[in-house]
Amino acid sequence: MNDAFTILTPYGTLQATFPEDGGCNLAGPDDARTFFEDQANSTVGPMGQTLSITGMEPAHLMGFMDRPDLGIRVIPPLDWDDSDDAS
Question: How does residue 87 score in pLDDT terms, banded at 50, 70 and 90?
Fold first, then answer.
């Protein structure tokens, strides 16, 4: 089963995966990655810190980066259980 999150942006679609050693890997068009990373870098997370791709967790992605007002939609994998990702 696909464990990637799908991220829709005005510049294309990204696939986000979370390796065991932390961070977030983004696959997709360069323009979409740049746009999404810029938005993440200007978003404040749960503890008042600025989010970044290197420190992103699935719960941050769903909770802070699903931003229809910016043209960003985040779609979790079908088998995603957010109770495993409580921050």
Answer: very low
pTM of this structure:
0.86
Q: How many CB atoms lie within 10 A of CB 40?
A: 23
Q: Of 33, 34, 36, 3, whose CA–CA distance to 17 is shortest?
A: 3
- Residue closest to 45 by CA, chosen among 26, 62, 60, 24: 60
CA quadruple 62, 13, 15, 35: dihedral, nearest 10: -70
In contact, 49 and 24? CB cutoff 8 Å: no
Closest-CA residue to 55 (of 85, 30, 23): 23
Confidence category of residue 21, pLDDT binned at 50, 70, 90: confident
Give the per-residue SS3 of 18-31: CCCCCCCEEECCHH
